[in-house]
Structure formats: C-alpha cells, structure tokens
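COMPLEX REQUEST
Ligand: NAP
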Amino acid sequence: MRAAYVGEPSTADPAGAVLVGDVPAPVAPDGWVEAEVRAGALNMHDVFTLRGIAKPAGDGPHVIGSDAAVVHNGQAFVVYPVLPADNAAGRTVTHATLLPDAGHGMLAERVVVPHAHLVPKPAGLSWEEAACLPTAWLTAWRMLFTKAQAGPGKLVLVQGAGGGVATAATALAVAAGATVVVTSRSAEKRERSLALGASAALESGARLPQLADIVVETVGPATFEHSMLSTRAGGTIVVCGGSTGFTAPLHLARLFAREVTVSGSTMGTLEEFRDLVAFVDGHGIRPAVDSTADLADAGRQVGRMLAGDAFGKLCVRVS
Ligand SMILES: NC(=O)c1ccc[n+]([C@@H]2O[C@H](COP(=O)([O-])OP(=O)(O)OC[C@H]3O[C@@H](n4cnc5c(N)ncnc54)[C@H](OP(=O)(O)O)[C@@H]3O)[C@@H](O)[C@H]2O)c1
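STATUS: Structure written out below.
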C-alpha cells in the first residue's frame, strides 16, 4: 500500500525527508480494526518526526501523520489520535502518545486503529475538513474549554491567527459565544480571521483595546511577553506549543501581582474529542483548510507549513 513515510530524518530539510511509496500493510492488534484513509492533515509533530526529534516505535518505515478521516465497514469516521501511555513517573496518563509515535502513522492507504477511536464523521464536513479535527482542533478544544472557560462574556486573544490550532481556537471560541481578538503578522491572515468571526484582528504585538480573559498561546517567544501584557488580572494564558521556540521570558511581578495563570495543555481525551466532534457538527463549523495536496505531494505540504504562509490546516488527499 502507498504511504508517506520518513526517509532519512533531516534537521535542515524535513520536507525533503518525506518519501512516498509502497510500505507493508499494517496488521491490527487485538481490539484494533483496519480502515481506509480518505484524507489526512499535517502537524508540527510530523516535522519533529521528520527531523528525527520524535522517534516512532518499531523498525519502520515510519509512516507520518496523526490525523485521518477514514472509512471502516462502509461508514465514515474521524480517528482519535492519542494512545494512553505511562509518563516518566510511571503513572498512566489518559492522553499521551500519538498514533504515529507508536508506529501507526495515518498518511497511508490503509491504517489500523483501536476500534474505540473511531468517531463518526460529521456529514457536513468534507474528508479533508474532517481530517483537521484530531490534533489541532482537539488541542484548541481542550485549551479553550478544559484549561479555561471560554464562552459568552469572555474575551479570548488568539496569537498567531493563521495557525492550525489558532484557526481552530478562533472558530470554536466564536461558536461558543466568546469575543475573539486575534493577532497575526500577515494582513491577509488578519482579514481571513475576521471572516472566521473574530471581532478584531491586530498586528502581532499591538496593544489590545481591552485586556483578555483567556489567551491561546501557540507561538512562543515571539508573542509570549505580549500575551502576559494582554491578560487581565486573574486571567489565563493557555500554552500548547511554541512555533518560534520553547524558551520565553516570564515577567514574574506581572504573574503574581495580577494573579495570572499560565496553563500548559496537550492534545485531549477521547471524551473531549467526542465533545469536539459533536460541537463542530452541531454548530455547522467548517475547519479552515489552507490547501489539499495528493499523497504524492505530502512533502510539499510540509514545506508550506515550514514557510509559515498557511492559513489553517495543510491537508493530504489519500484515496
Ligand atoms: N501540545 C499539543 O498537544 C500540540 C498540538 C498541536 C500543536 N502544538 C504545537 O503548537 C504550535 C502551533 O501549532 P500549529 O499546528 O497551529 O502550527 P502552524 O499551523 O504552523 O501555525 C503557527 C502559527 O504561529 C505563528 N507564527 C509563526 N512565527 C511567528 C512569529 N515570528 N511571530 C508571530 N507569530 C508567528 C503564525 O501565525 P501568523 O502567521 O498568523 O502570524 C503561524 O500561523 C506548534 O509548536 C505545535 O508543535 C502542540
């Protein structure tokens, strides 16, 4: 079967490390089922794998991709992409390892997944729109609604508006009744965020007219100081990653004097994923897809992600 997989990991050229070709079909362990992948989406985690930072289990070839919309027994599903794992302290956590890290990447014609991870695909979504939900959208969901209480009366600041997690956070927070302000380096992305329902779209680093209750922080050092300056007393900054790096200055006096909470967040539970899918379906939300390429061009999509020009998710049509 055809798949996109890691050739020689490369720090300098992760897009060039993507190979597309035949790999052995996966075998379903007990409790897992086979499914045909219709579409997938890419994430920074795939770049970490292609750079050799994230190391999948097994001998390979290591198929990339955490996100898939699939067909199983003639029915359409999206795949919850996280496997439980033991953390460093030996305590089982409910959302830890991504399927590709366990040797079960999703950018392949056929995949195997735990049966319980199949969640019915909303009929109103295209295959590629549905494929956006597992990683970026689940992450945004947990950031907004588990780690913070986004909803009516809340002002949510979304930094780096064009990102996969950021576009999800904007759309979800708007649908939940929050007021959303975004920042972006790009005038075009600011314009497109307004079309997603943001009330205001500012240049990165610009002063907010009013301090935010909740900040969705995915950018890291380039925006973190601005996030601290933009949070009201008692507000929450939720951090899930750092597109510009992982070390940022923290103004301690602002943190304690204003009693700001900085909260880390990673992916989400199966229950959160089901809630997300139902919410997207119920509100008729359509994930922002930057572009969709054929499986043969998966490496080009990785390159587009690294270029930083995309608005929304980079998708791949598989079959
Ligand atoms: N913890 C988790 O479970 C989890 C899950 C998903 C993602 N993540 C992490 O979250 C981060 C974002 O992921 P993503 O998928 O949303 O990435 P993405 O789609 O590549 O988006 C990154 C965004 O960051 C902004 N950005 C990049 N460079 C910037 C700069 N110099 N100044 C200001 N903004 C800049 C860009 O916004 P503008 O172009 O609009 O300015 C861009 O749209 C990554 O670090 C990823 O690894 C973590």
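REMARKS: Residues 43-44, 135-136, 139, 160-166, 184-186, 189, 204, 218-219, 222-223, 240-244, 266-267, 305, 308 surround NAP (CB under 6 Å). The chain has nine helices and 17 strands.
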